[in-house]
Amino acid sequence: MNIQVSRRRFLQLAGAGAAATTSIAAFGHGEAEAQVAARVRNFKLARATETRNTCTYCSVACGIIMYSRGDVKKGETAEIFHIEGDAEHPTNRGTLCPKGAALLDYVHSKTRTLYPQVRKPGSDKFERISWGDALDRIARLMKDDRDKNLIERNEAGVTVNRWASTGFLAASATTNETAWATYKVVRSTGIVAFDNQARV
Ligand code: SF4
């Protein structure tokens, strides 16, 4: 709707509005503005600690900023309460896809895996183990399997060094350098089935 209001009429209306406001104050509503201001919440990111990181979901590797309370330097536990895209990150320029936008729920999920677990042969449940035990166990099992199943030569007698009985799944939230080192180590063992978590 397009309403045409002359300058004179506009000033009349403005004057009427000012008079009405004055009348409202006269009726005891002068505190309204102060009461509204008192109920405005503080900016929730004020005094938060900002930590830059990378979204863990896929290989796009968008930059994120995590906001937390709690001073780690004083021995307090950091509690992440807000995550948003990093506007200065060259990959995503502050944007996040729906998965990245839900990262806060991922961080606080009750089903999130926080420590290594193992389900031993014949068992129907997972047991928690230490990181040291997990690494030792992985190394032991990999070594034994490689010793047993490495194919050093193909049928024509050509050296191939294929290890096809163990697979390796790498993470996407790594730097180029980490990815390069991971690739070199895994391929040097002869592992054929090598993929990235981003494709799962
Ligand atoms: S899941 Fe979405 S937000 Fe996370 S890295 Fe991939 S594209 Fe970016």
Description:
By secondary structure, the protein is α+β, with helices and mostly antiparallel strands. It folds into three domains: about 35 residues, no CATH class; about 60 residues, Phosphorylase Kinase, domain 1, CATH 3.30.200.210; about 80 residues, no CATH class. Helix content is about 35%, strand content about 20%. The mean pLDDT is about 85. The site of iron/sulfur cluster has 11 residues, from helix 3.
Largest sheet: 3 strands, antiparallel
Q: Give me the Rg, rounded.
A: 30 Å
Helices, by number, come to: 6
Strand order of the largest sheet: 1-2-3
Q: Which whole number gives the mean pLDDT? A: 87
Low-confidence segments: none
Unique ligands: iron/sulfur cluster
Q: Please tell me what the overall shape is.
A: elongated
Structural class: alpha+beta
Query: What is the domain tally?
Result: 3
Itemize the secondary structure elements and their pairings:
Blueprint: H1 7-29, H2 32-39, E1 49-54, E2 63-69, E3 79-85, H3 98-101, H4 103-108, E4 117-118, E5 127-128, H5 131-149, E6 151-153, E7 159-170, H6 176-189, E8 191-196
Parallel strand pairs: 7-8
Antiparallel strand pairs: 1-2, 2-3, 4-5, 6-7
The structure holds iron/sulfur cluster.
Give descriptors for this structure.
8 strands; 3-stranded antiparallel beta sheet; 6 helices; 3-stranded mixed beta sheet; 22% strand; 3 domains; Phosphorylase Kinase, domain 1; single chain; 200 residues; alpha+beta; binds iron/sulfur cluster
